Amino acid sequence: SNTGNFQVRERLVDDLYVAGALLNTPYLRDTAGKINAVRRPQTGGDLLDGYGFGPDDDLPGLVVMSNLGAARVFDPNFDQTQAVIRNMAGFVNGVSQELLIRHGGSALTATMQIVAGMFEPIAMFDLDVDDPDIDYLRRVDSGDLEKLHFKSSPKNADDVLRAIASSYSPFELDIRMVVVEGIAPTFIEDRNHDGQFTATDLRLMGYRLLSNQARVQMLVDFDLPLTQTISGRTCPSPSLIYRDLDGNGRDGAISCSGSGGAARVRRVPR
Fold first, then answer.
1. Same domain, 167 and 224
2. pLDDT band at residue 232, thresholds of 50, 70 and 90?
3. Residue 128 covered by a domain
4. Range of lowest pLDDT (191-195, 229-233, 239-243)
C-alpha cells in the first residue's frame, strides 16, 4: 500500500516504542488498523540522527570499545589520568535489516567507515628541538617522551613526513563490541582495574548484557599512514599532532607534503 510520499512496508524487527525516537517506528497502526505515517522533517518533525562519540541512534544499545585511537580520554597535558574510554558506536554509518526466517526473525548489519586516525595511536611530535644530539621528540598515547633520530638524513619535507608517520608501526589494535539493554554509555570505565575495557566493566557499571562480546584483534603495520588530497599532496592523519615538547616555543610542524624542498627541513648542526 502507499500513503502518498512513503512506501509502507512491514517492519522486520519488533522493538519497543521509545518516546522521542519516532524514526525507529516509521509507521504506526492505529486501533482501526489504518496505517499512519509518523511525522517527518518535511511536516515539522525533528530528524533524530547523529554521528560521533557515544551511542548510535539506530542501535542505541551498541558499545564499541577500542584500546587505541580517538576512543581514549586524556587530560590537557596528554596524560591518561582516568581509566576511561569513549564509546565509538556513534560512528556507525548505517544499519540494515535482513529477513532470515519466515516468522519474522531478522539480522541487523551495522557498517562503519573507518576514517583516518580513528583506530591509530595518537602521537605528538616536535620537529624543532634545541638539543643538538636528537632529531625530534615524540609521545605516543600519553607514554614517555622519546628522543629519536632519523634512520637516514631526510632530503625534504616529504621525507620527514614519511619518517615520523611510520616511526611507531607496527601496533596492536583490540576492538570489543557488545550490546546492552537500554541506551549504551558514552564513556566506559575500567571498573575491575585490569587495564582493559570489556563487557565485564559494562556489567560492573550496572548494564545488562544482551549479547556476547565480539572481539577483533589486529596487528597493524604500515610504511606510510598518510592521506592523499585531491591535489596529490599527502598529509598526516588527524592522529598525528604537532606540539612543542621541549619548551622552546616551536614545534616545526609540516602540514602536508609538496610544500617545499630541503630548505624547509631544519637540521640542527651536530
1. yes
2. low
3. yes
4. 229-233
| Amino acid letter, residue 16 | L
Q: Which residue type, as a one-letter code, is found at position 205? A: M
The Cα-based distances of 99 to 11, 25, 35, 110 in angstroms read: 10, 17, 22, 15
CA atoms within 13 A on the CB side of 34: 5
Q: Residue 134 is part of which domain span?
A: 123-171+220-264
pLDDT at residue 202 greater than cutoff 70: yes
Task: Provide the β-strand partners of residue 29.
Answer: 35
Asked if residue 269 belongs to a domain, the reply is no
**What's the CA gap between 71 and 53, in Å, rounded?**
8
Listed residue (173, 199, 188) closest to 85, CA to CA: 188
Model-level pTM? 0.67
- Number of compact structural domains in the chain: 3
Give Cα 212 distance to the centre of its chain.
22
N-to-C CA span, the chain: 80
Q: Is residue 231 part of a domain?
A: yes
pLDDT in tens, 31-43: 444 544 444 344 4
- What is the C-alpha separation between 167 and 157, in angstroms, rounded? 15
* Spatial distance between the Cα atoms of 49 and 67, rounded to a whole number of angstroms: 27
